[in-house]
Amino acid sequence: MSIPNKYLNDLMERVIARDPGQSEFHQAVREVLTSLSPVVDAHPEYITEGVMDCLVEPERVIKFRVPWEDDQGNVHVNRGFRVQFNSAIGPYKGGLRFHPSVTESVIKFLGFEQIFKNSLTGLPIGGGKGGSDFDPKGKSDGEIMRFCQSFMSELSKYIGPDTDVPAGDIGVGAREIGYLFGQYKRLRNEFTGTLTGKGLSYGGSLARTEATGYGLCYFTDCMLKDAGKSFKGATVVISGSGNVATYACQKATEFGAKVVALSDSNGYIYDKNGIDLDLVKEIKQVRRDRIRTYVDVHPEAEYHEGCKDIWTIPCDIALPCATQNELNGEAAKALIANGCYAVAEGANMPCTPDAVDALKEAGVLFGPAKAANAGGVAVSALEMSQNSMRFFWSFDEVDEHLKRIMTDLYHNAAKAAAEYGMAGDLVAGANIAGFLKVANSMLAYGLV
Ligand code: NDP
Q1: How many domains is the chain partitioned into structurally?
Q2: What CATH number corresponds to the domain at position 347?
Q3: Are 187 and 156 in contact (CB under 8 A)?
Q4: Is the distance from the beta carbon of residue 66 to the nearest atom of ligand 1 less than 6 Å?
C-alpha cells in the first residue's frame, strides 16, 4: 500500500532498496511514515531540513561476533547487535533480545519503534535496541554466563550511563542482566546505572519487573474507560507467559477481569475457570518448563499444541504479549466474530498490518505497542534516575509514576490523533505524538 505523501512514499522505496532483505524493519517504517503523512503535509520543513531522511537511518549499527564455550568445551560463535538509532532526546535506551530469530532487520525494527515509544513516555531517553541470535533455551547457567560475558566484552565499548543504557527483552531476564552487568562492572571498573532491569540488591528499581504488564493494563484501562467499558467482568486472552504476559495477567485480574488463556512458543492453555497465575509463575520462572505442564495440575484446563488458534477463544479483550506478527488478519477476524471489543499490544508489533486494518475497520479499540507497552521502558528510565541519585523509591512510588505516565501517554496519543483529523486512531496518535518531540529536537540541532 502506498504512503499518501509522495516524498515519504519515495523515501520508503529508498529504505527498501538500501536494505532489501529487512522486511520487519520495512513494516515498522511504513506504518510510521503512513501516520506522519498529514504531519509533513502541514510542516514540510521536516522534509526540507532532512529530518525524515535522518529518522529512518540509524545513527550507528554495531555488529559483532560472540564466541563462547559450552559445558563440553565446544566452541560456538553467535552474532551480536546493537542499533543506536536516535539520541535526539537522550541516551539510547532499549532492550537486548536473545533469540534464534534475531537478525539486523529485527533489531532495527525494534530500535526504530523504540524512538517513538521512549519519546511518548515524556522522559529523556533516545531509541536503541540490541541482541543476539543466541538461543538461551536448554543452556546451563554456566553457558549463559559465558555467553553474556563474551557478549558484554564487546558491547561494553559502546555503552555507558549517559550514552546507551540497555535492558532486557525476550530471552534476557534477571539472570542474564546480572551476568551482563557483572561483566560490564569488571571491565569498566565503575558502578553506574548502565543496564536497567538490575536485581534489587545492586541498583534495580522496584516495580520494573511488573512495569510492562501493569503499564499495558493501565493504558488499556484508559482506552476502555473512554469507550464506556472496563476490565471488570471481562474475559481476557493473553498470549505469551513471559515477563509481559505474566504481569498483564496479574493486573487484569486485579482489575476484575478473568484471564482464560496464556501460551508459550509451543502452544497455549485454556482454563475457563481463570488462569492459576501462581502455577504459571512456578512453571515458567522457577522450573523454566513448558506451559503444557499446567494441565498436569489442572486437568480440567485444555492444552493445545501450536499458538495461532489462541485467538479463536471467545474473549472481550485480547492482549498479545509474546512476539512480533503473532496475530494475523485471520486471527483478527476470529476475534471480531467472537465479539472482542479491545486489543492492546503488550509485545512489540504482534499484530500484522492486515490484522490492524481489520480490527480498526470493525471498530475494535486498538492500543498499539509503542504506546501500550511503554511502561517497561518508562520504569527503566526511572531506574536510571534512581541510580544517578543513588536513591531508591518504594514500590508504590514507582507504581504511581507508572500509572501517571501511562495515563498521560494515552491522552497525548488520543489528542494528537484528534488534532490531525484521525480521532480514535491511537496508531496514528502514538506515532505523531512520539515523532514531534524527537523531530523538533532534530530540527534544533541542524543537520547532524
Ligand atoms: P519473555 O522472554 O519473558 O517471554 C516471551 C514469551 O513469548 C514466552 O512465553 C515465549 O515462549 C513466547 N514467545 C517468544 N517467541 C515466540 C514465538 N516466536 N512464537 C510464540 N511465542 C513466542 O519476553 P517478554 O515478556 O519480556 O517480551 C515479550 C514481548 O514484549 C516482546 O515482543 C518484547 O519485545 C516486548 N516487550 C517487553 C518489554 C519488557 O519489559 N520485558 C518491554 C516492552 C516490550 P517460550 O517460553 O517458549 O520462549
Answers
A1: 3
A2: 3.40.50.720
A3: yes
A4: no
Position 89 scores a pLDDT of 98
In the predicted model, is pLDDT for residue 96 greater than 90? yes
259 shares a domain with 121: no
Check whether residue 268 and residue 230 sit in a common domain. yes
For 47-92, give the secondary structure using H, E and C.
HHCCHHHHHCCCCEEEEEEEEEECCCCCEEEEEEEEEEEECCCCCE
- Is the beta carbon of 241 within 6 A of some atom in ligand 1? yes
Whether residue 78 is found in the same domain as residue 131: yes
Catalytic (active site) residue 129? yes
- The boundaries of the domain holding residue 40 are 6-55
Q: What is the pLDDT of residue 448?
A: 83
Q: Are residues 148 and 285 both part of a single domain?
A: no
Catalytic member of 108, 129, 198, 229: 129
How far apart are alpha carbons 64 and 72 in whole angstroms? 24
Q: Which atom of ligand 1 is nearest to the CA of 245?
A: 25
Q: Residue 70 sits in a domain of what CATH number? A: 3.40.50.10860
In a domain, 322, yes or no: yes
Mean pLDDT of 259-288: 97
The confidence band for 65, taking pLDDT boundaries of 50, 70 and 90, is very high
CB atoms < 10 A from the CB of 302, how many? Answer: 15
- Give mean pLDDT, residues 126-137: 97
Residue 1: the pLDDT is 80
